[in-house]
UniProtKB/TrEMBL annotation:
Keywords noted in UniProt: Membrane, Transmembrane, Transmembrane helix
InterPro entries: SAM-dependent_MTases_sf
Gene3D superfamilies (UniProt xref): Vaccinia Virus protein VP39
Name of protein: Uncharacterized protein
Amino acid sequence: MTTKRSNGTTSKISNGYLSSDEEFEELGPLVAMELTSGQEDLLDKDPQFCGNLLPKLPWLLALMLLIVALYVMAPTTGSKNSTTTMHHHNHHHIHLECPTEPLSTLNFDDDAAIQDYVANGTQPCTKTPACFLETFRDHVFDGHTRTYTQFKESEREFVRDFFVPHLKPGDAIYESACGIGLNLFAVLELVAEEANLTGITVYGNEYIEENANRANWILDVLLGAQLDEDMPNKKGHVCRGDSTDLSFVPANSFDLVYTGFISPLWDPLHINSHSKMKELCLDQNKNDDWKAQTLVNLSQSMQDDWFSQWVVEMIRIAKPGAPIIIEENALPFCSNPHDYGGVSPAYWHHGVDHYGWNVQPSSLQFGKRGNGYKGSRYHVFMLKKEEE
């Protein structure tokens, strides 16, 4: 049925409550009796009218309360407010206590390198939201050599295959080391384009304070410009934080946890020379040079442990059964000295037992980098164990 309201809008009440305007009008005298001045006089002057009305007052009140309840609960035709409110209730806020103490980590002790990284990822126009929205898709970010648009397209297939099947409206995702937040936004755009999936809340951390502040501003701007009013994506918060210590993030909280890149140890042995490290890689294969082999093995063992520190924290904050995704993994330095160093695919199989990761061993899968990328980097997918 279509009920007419004082503001001119209409509402349909079904399921047998009211089915026609005539029925609503018939209930009018019982539901919402409008007392005119003449009726007020009648109440004062006609005791019989009052006597006939008084026994019906409890029923009148009950009917009025029932109709008011039905009116409030019924969705409004053509109005998005009720739908939006219901969808918004699906978002669950996760409280983060962002660290306030200075961060100290093994990997970021070169201020010049940090500033260079920040400068390379700077967006050219952040003076106003409008300027940023017009330009961000055509510029590189977070150390990538490709623009946002190019990066997003290169990730499309992987996100479709490994993110989309594990997300639903109302879920929360977390990116460890999220940079200025554009990787998170790319994921939101891709899952919406590939599966019409929205209503996701994003969180993250970033070691570099300037980038963490940028991420919060950028995500506020981008998510504030959404066209989907019914089920918008939301930003939780991006904290300045060390990805090897996410103690400020509650355990078992997120429906999907990922990182766009585990920043490897830049110089595990503090050799301070890229060329000398390359020489060690070559020497370990010459004449059974045990010294070079020992140093190379030590360097890789430190790198392995470093990666595991990130992974352990990502697993901890994921919900039982949730995906943990590590993108852009480089091979060990001696396998590819043209990259920064990393771990081999075999490392992940070995790590489940060696480090005791709380994941399902059979869930481990590998993905390729998308179109336009050369090199040997790869993606990793695994599921946290279900609760026992």
